[in-house]
Specification:
By secondary structure, this protein is mainly α. It folds into two domains: 2-50 and 76-101, no CATH class; 103-147, no CATH class. It has helices at 19-24, 26-43, 79-99, 115-131, and strands at residues 54-59, 71-76. The chain has a two-stranded antiparallel ribbon with strand order 1-2.
């Protein structure tokens, strides 16, 4: 999991730890990270600085620098905190897969699945029922456009 961390990412002002540092020192620090992560799982206490996000405005590269709409916000999080959540997520995904907990039709938050398939199916059914002048049980609100 540590090898998947991308170099060149900003460090959080809360801990100043870079992904590059995590990767370069893994041969020494991996047992310490393991102990820390297990302590967090055992106690349920997550370091406060891991849940703090620092929002920075990034200029989009067009328009006036004085116009706020020409900036997009990015949130800087702790690299160590992101590593912990990645490890936790990977273990949960593996556990769910082995135990077959998640229904095959569940698409949200799953790799290689798309909720757009379900949106398409619901939209198709709604249009079909509407053309047959039949009532539908659910209503689809369009928050975004597919095409």
């Amino acid at each position: 999991m540590l090898n998947k961390c991308k170099n060149g990412k900003a460090s959080s002002p809360a801990d100043d730890i870079l992904n590059k540092y995590l990767k370069c020192t893994k041969h020494i620090m991996l047992p310490i990270y393991k102990s820390l992560f297990n302590l967090i799982l055992d106690t349920g206490v997550i370091p406060e600085c891991w849940s703090m996000g620092f929002i920075l405005p990034i200029f989009k590269g067009k328009g006036s620098h004085t116009e706020p709409n020409n900036y997009r916000p990015i949130t800087i999080l702790s690299c160590l905190g992101k590593l912990f959540t990645s490890v936790l997520n990977e273990r949960l995904v593996q556990f769910n897969s082995l135990q077959n907990i998640i229904n095959e039709n569940q698409a949200g938050f799953r790799k290689s699945y798309s909720t757009l398939d379900h949106v398409f199916t619901l939209s198709f059914l709604q249009n079909l029922f509407k053309s047959q002048k039949r009532e539908t049980i659910c209503r689809i609100r369009r928050f975004f456009t597919l095409f």
